[in-house]
Design a protein that fits this description.
oxidoreductase activity, alpha/beta, SDR_fam, Rossmann fold, 45% helix, 262 residues, NAD(P)-binding protein
Length: 262
Amino acid sequence: MAFNYKRVLLVGATSGIGAAMADRLVLEGAKVIAVGRRQDRLDAFVQKHGSDKASSVRYDINDTAGMDAFVNGIVTQYPDLDCVFLNSGVQSQVRLSRPEEVDLDAFHREISTNFNRLVDLSIKFLPHLQKKSIPTALVFTGTLLAAVPAVTVPAYSASKAALNVYIMCLRRQNKGSSTKIIEIWPPAVQTELHDYMGHEVGRKVGMPLQDFTDQAWEQLAAGAELVVVGAVPTVEGFAEMVEARRNGFEGLANLMLQHFPL
């Protein structure tokens, strides 16, 4: 099944991969509701594409007290919503070799932003998607580091590994549902995500954003459930490793679900 959804909520749409995918979705014919914290960028997105194709809602995913109001507001205002794209994320370097310098509150906030809040939003939006009589989708932006962690960004790597495990279980337990569960694994991409390295250095790390967007869209349009762009450097047989891991998961899932009615 192709990526043929018509009304897409994109959370984390004000920069980087989210902004690029929001633009691409509009160009491919979807109506996009952009969500983010920066009102000026949300306004610029709507102005760029026109209010007939683009709209926006300012919301910080860490506002857990306001999450139910946000979700209910979206599904009420946009009853034709058929795709929720969860892209928000933060990344920072942590020197675990200097434990006295580790900010534990920041470490846990990073994991909560990248993992807990996306779990919350997916669980809250999923019933609205599943009750529709048309195909719907829930899309997550993950990372290649979910399979092979990067030593300098342990909180980010751990949060994305946890997200991948959650998505695999979510997809398998909802097998046969009208809601497709899609995960995108980018490599390092030239975005604001790496600004902690300094603007001049961080924006040059990884694949050009346009190249990533083109390659990811090709797989999305082809109906892929796991969109993998590139490979982890120095990891021989990365694609084969990912496939073996998925096969192992399916085998164990089939065994365990014999005693766990869905």
